[in-house]
Amino acid sequence: MLVLTHPDMDHVGDAGVLMSQVPVRLLVTTPMAGETTIVKSLTANVARWQAVMAPNHLRVGPLKFDVVAPASASGETNAESLVLYGKIGDSQWLFTGDTTKEVEQAQLVPQHLQADFLKVSHHGSKTASDFAFIQALNPQLALISAGRNNRYGHPHQETLATLQALHIPALNTATSGMIWVDATPKAHVVNTFIRK
Predict the structure, then answer these.
(1) CA distances from 19 to 14, 42, 45, 47, 97 (A)
(2) From CA 106, how far away is CA 4, in angstroms rounded?
(3) By three-state DSSP, how is residue 180 classified?
(4) Could you give the C-alpha distances from 5 to 79, 119, 164, 168, 183, in angstroms and in order?
(5) Which residues of 162-196 are buried (b: 16+ CB within 10 A; e: fewer)?
(6) Hey, is 82 helix, strand or coil?
(7) Which is nearest to 13 in space by CA: 22, 25, 33, 23?
(8) Cβ-Cβ contacts under 8 Å for 27 (sequence gap 6 or more)
(9) Taking the chain, what is the end-to-end CA distance rounded to the nearest angstrom?
(10) Burial of 118 (0-12, 13-18, 19+ CB in 10 A)
């Protein structure tokens, strides 16, 4: 299964390259992403395409994820990012795509989610990572996906300050390189790799 959270190019641009190398049985998007030309062109490379919104569920082998947002169409790509919540090994995860503070406050906080690992929304942009949301989520580790010297200045200082104020350690791909977690039902190990 390949999940494309929303149709922005930094989230779907290399999906075709990936799918040419890795067989994809199911492509999952939001309804908005499914209407875009780029995602329509990708569906030729997959066995099945499915558009989902909250409260759908996704299952891949032993893994089950709840789609916890978006609950409705807004017409704004970041606000319609898929947000997935589920357990991997011994850990609860929240994958936020590029969702916004408004979605965090209106749709995620009322669900009383708690996560061990948080993939920080929108590359650490100040448009997401609401203080009350992060505080309630109470993750052990925040993971930020941002390019080195990116033109947007991600992650923004406001987001880093929120994580620091809540004593949540963070790893950033811009400084740590690739980040992956080896998870078993009883333990997890966080790994990083960056070419010197």
Answers:
(1) 9, 8, 7, 11, 20
(2) 22
(3) strand
(4) 10, 13, 27, 25, 23
(5) bbeeeebebbbbbebeebebebeeeebebeeeeee
(6) coil
(7) 33
(8) 1, 2, 4, 19, 39, 42, 43, 46, 48, 49, 50
(9) 32
(10) buried
Sign of the dihedral defined by the CA atoms of residues 164, 171, 107, 182, in that order: negative
Instruction: Please state whether 33 falls in left (phi above 0), alpha (psi between -120 and 50) or beta.
Output: alpha
In angstroms, the CA 183 to CA 191 distance is: 11
Per-residue pLDDT of the chain (196 residues; tens, 9 = 90+): 989 898 887 888 888 888 888 888 888 988 876 666 666 666 666 788 888 999 999 998 889 999 999 999 888 889 999 999 999 988 999 999 999 999 999 999 999 999 999 999 999 999 999 999 999 999 999 999 999 999 999 999 999 999 999 999 999 999 999 999 998 888 889 999 988 7
- Tokens matching residue 123: 């590359």
Cα 154 to the chain's mean position, in Å?
Answer: 15
Q: Which residue has the tokens 């920080």?
A: 120
Residue 47 has a CB neighbour count (10 Å cut-off) of: 10
